[in-house]
Write a structure and sequence with these properties.
The protein is mainly alpha-helical and about 130 residues long. About 45% of the residues lie in helices and about 10% in strands. A two-stranded antiparallel ribbon has the order 1-2.
């Protein structure tokens, strides 16, 4: 069960390194924002405006598109609630929550192989030039 909105800490604007998402991560789920969105939702539902805080530089369109794809693919659910105005929150589905472990493993692998990955990428770029 997720914590009510009032009990959850706000998302940290510095939760992602400015160079994230790294092109060195060995696999992608959707576009470059999708895995970051999944991370933002790991502690419970969030509103659109909350998601924009740690995703510095993301436009509304660039956030809406991966949210829709994640919803279409069954990783995220869009929840509307009525009250003193329409409130929309996004939350991980069990399928989306199941991706967090593999993402942890991929991030750890990337950290362990960072120098080698940078060297390989630079070598590939120099060959392409």
């Amino acid at each position: 069960m997720t914590k009510p909105q009032a009990e959850r800490a706000p998302l940290d604007p510095e939760m992602f390194d400015p160079v994230c998402p790294s092109p060195l991560v060995p696999f992608r789920v959707g576009d470059k924002w999708a895995t970051l969105i999944l991370r933002c939702l790991q502690d419970g539902p969030r509103r659109f405006s909350e998601l924009k805080v740690p995703l510095r530089g993301v436009t509304a369109k660039s956030l809406t598109q991966p949210l829709r794809r994640l919803e279409r693919d069954g990783f995220v659910v869009r929840e509307e609630s009525e009250g003193t105005g329409r409130r929309v929150e996004y939350a991980l589905t069990p399928l989306g929550r199941g991706l967090l472990g593999p993402l942890d493993a991929a991030c750890e692998w990337t950290r362990e192989n960072w120098d080698e990955l940078i060297d390989a990428q630079e070598a590939g770029l120099s060959r392409d030039s």
